[in-house]
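Researcher: Sequence of Nuclear prelamin A recognition factor follows. Predict its structure.
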Amino acid sequence: MKCENCTKKECSKKQKNDNEQNVPLALLNSNDENEERNEFHRLANAKIFLSDCLACDNCITSDEAVRVFQQNQKELFHVLNLNKKCDTSKHKVVAVSVCPQSLPYFAAKFSVSVTEAAKKLCGFLKNLGVHYVFDTTIAADFSILESQKEFVQRYHHQNQEKHSIPMFASACPGWIQYAERVLSSLVTPHICTAKSPQQIMGSLVKGYFARQQNLLPDKIFHIIVAPCYDRKLEALREDFHAPVYNSQDVDCVLTSGEVFQIMEQRKVSLKEMADVAFDSLFGGIKEDELIRHDGRKSDGYLEHIFKHAAKELFDTEVKEIVYKVLKNKDFQEVTLEKDGETVLRFAAAYGFRNIQNMVLKLKKGKCSYHFVEVLACPGGCLNGKGQAQTEDGKPDKALLRQMEDVYAAVPVRLPETNTHVQKLYQEWLEGMDSVKVQESLHTKYSTEKLTAHHLDIKW
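Model: Prediction complete. C-alpha cells:
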C-alpha cells in the first residue's frame, strides 16, 4: 500500500499499524515514571504517522525517530515535576511559545474569539506551572522581514547567480525536510535562508530573553505549541543547537492537539480558566493586543514579500492581493504588471502534489515564478495534522472552516511597524546587516541526499 502522499509508481511502502509506528522508548527511569504516572498516564505518546510525513523516501533516522517521540506531554510534566523538588540544580525556567495558527484551534474548540482563547490558554499553562507564555508573532516579523530583504537581493542578482530565482519560502519544516533529503541540490540553493518563526523564537528565548533574565540557555526549557508534527523534526536540526551549553533553541514541540489532550485528561474547559495576557520578551510588559500577518491560513510570506518587492523594485503600491486559482485551490498565483509586462510572478503551492508539480517545472527549466510560498499541508498551516484531524485521522473540515473564520477576524499588522523588532535589531542583533543577524536569523541547508545505508529505519 502506498503512502498517501506518494505518487511514485515504485513506492511499495506498507502502512503500519499504530503499534508498529511507535519506537519503544525509555523516556524516564522507573522511579520517575512511578512517581509521575498520575500526571500523564493516559496521554498518548508523540508519533508521526506515514500520512503526516511529507518526505517519506528514507528521510528519517532511528535516532531522530526516538528524539521525535520524546517530544511529548510526558517531557513537559517531567520538567514541571523536577521544579517541585528540593534539588534546585535540576530546576528550569519553563517557557512556552505559541504559534498564531494554533490559537484558532482552541478558539473553535471552545467557541470563543482568538484573543479570548489566547488569554485562557495562557492561564491554563500558567496553572500547570509554566513560568512564561509568549506569542511567536514577533519571530514571524523577523522571518518575514529577512525574507523580504533576501528576495530583493536575489532579484537583483538573478542574472549573475543561477539559483537566485525562484526563491522558495523556508517557513514549513515538512517542505524543508523533503527538499533537503529527497530533492537535495536541485532545490536547496533556491530556498530562502531566513529561519522559520519557530527557530527565530528559539534564538530569541535562548539568546535575548535568557540574557535579560541572567540565565544560561540550558536553564530554560523552551516549548513550542504548533499546528503540525513536522515542527518536532525541525527542533532537532543540528544548526539550532548550542554546543557550549548542550542546549537546543527549542527543547520540545507540542501540537495543539497534544495540549488539548492535557485539558481532556484534567477535565478542564478553557472557558473555566482565568484570563492571563501573554508575557513579553521585554520585562514586565504584557502583550494584550493579539495580531496576525496578512496571510489567509499561514504567516503570509507571499503577501508581504510581494507588496514589499513591488514597492522596492518597481515603486508600485499594492493595496490588495488578487489570487488566480490554477489547477486547484491550493495552487494559486499572483502577478504584477507594469507597462504591459509581467514583472513579478508569485505562487502559493500547498500540499505534496502541488509541490511535486512545481519541482517538476523547475527540473525542466520551466518554473516562471520569482517566489513560491511552499507549505506541506493542503489548506496551509491552519490545516496542520496536529490540530485539524478527527480521532480516526481524517481531515476535520468543519473544524477547519471554523478556524479560518476566527483567524480572519484577528487584526493584521505589518512587520515593519513593530517597534520592538526595530529595537531588537539595534540592541540584540547589532544592526540590520550585522554578522549576528546572519547567525541568529538565518540558516544553511544540506545538499547531500541521505542514502539507505545511512538509515536504520524506512517508513
